[in-house]
Amino acid sequence: MAKKRNRFQSNSDFTEANLPHTRPQVFKSVYRTRFFYILKVSLLLIAFCLPLFIWQIFMQFKIDDIALSLAEDMSNSSEILSETLWNVIFKNLVALPFFALCGLGFGGAIHAFQKLVWNQISFASDFFEGFKKSFLRYLACGILFGLSFFLLEFTIYALPLTDFDFIIRAICYGLSIVQICFFAIFIAFIYLQYEYYSLKFFNAISNAFKLMIKSFFPCLLFILIIAIPYFLMFIKVRMLYFALIFVFLFVSSPGLISLILYIDFKFDVLINRSSFPEIVDRGVFRERNYMHEK
User: Fold this and answer.
1) Fewer CB atoms < 10 Å away: N or C end of the chain?
2) Per-residue exposure over 252-290, b if at least 16 CB sit within 10 Å of its own CB, e if not
3) Measuring CA to CA, how many Å separate 75 from each of 70, 83, 85?
């Protein structure tokens, strides 16, 4: 059957040899053939994340100014640290609705990118279709991650006000980092389950926990790539803050697509091969898939 050519594809016909046979090849293929589609979806995601970016950067300026005053006047350090902590609490409470908006944005982007890597017909409008089907669930996921982020920052800024020794502080810092990594991967598995299966929210939570335990460290690598714009905020160069959008476009979006492909692989290994063999390797054109279709 003849297929419509994409304007970025070569003039060669589609043959089995030209189709992606592995998920890394799927990644290369979607960037080679649908780069501008990925750019559109990424810009839509940025639009949903922009209020959070602006608020975080604005408040970071204020917190940095307080830190400078601390460096100039160490005699008033406890009061300045307390003021910093209250600003952090205020920043994160106000940010919760912005995190909810980000939750919707990631729901839309994951739906659009998932259709893309499955080699399905996909349009930018799929972004909005994605979060409409699970609107409240994705809002809840965004707020849940916002609370996790709140706990991380509260720990970072509250511990200097305590009398805990170094070991206790190190344990608290470590646990706060582990919990936000845990929630990021946990939420990713919730999102992707709704692309594959029809299930209740509490069942998705239970499954996500089990799947995350078996896939924590590989998923963590992709989560850290997606979070690179946040890490750059700790570099005290204010002009760098304005480059975060470009970093998100060209680093975080590939990280998100890679995470989707990896979780697709884990679903195949842990669930689909035994329960849903008809959807194993969806979007991957292995030789056995052709033999099955014939």
Assistant:
1) N
2) bbbbbbbbbbbbbbbbbeebbeeeeeebbbbbbbeeebe
3) 9, 15, 18
Enumerate residues 6+ apart whose C-beta is below 8 A from 267: 192, 196, 211
Distance CA 176, CA 159 (A): 11
Across 66-70, 78-82, 153-157, 258-262, least confident range: 66-70
- Give the whole-angstrom CA distance, residue 16 versus residue 217: 34
Question: Considering only CA atoms, which of 95, 71, 100 is closest in space to residue 84?
Answer: 71
Nearest to 185 by CA among 228, 147, 141, 151: 141
* Token output for 129: 């279709």
Residue with token string 């990896």: 262
Phi, psi of 22 (to 5 degrees): -140, 165
Phi, psi of 283 (to 5 degrees): 85, -5
pLDDT tens-place string over residues 188-226: 999 999 999 888 888 888 999 989 988 899 999 999 888
* Cα end-to-end distance, the chain, whole Å: 14
Residue 238 confidence class, pLDDT cut points 50, 70, 90 = low
Whole-number pLDDT of residue 72? 64
* pLDDT band for position 71 (cuts 50, 70, 90): low
Decide: 92 and 150 in contact? Cβ < 8 Å. yes
Q: Is residue 261 a contact partner of residue 283, using CB atoms and an 8 Å limit?
A: no
Percent of the chain scored above 70 by pLDDT?
85
Report if pTM > 0.70: yes
- The amino acid at 258: S
Give residue for tokens 């990631």.
106
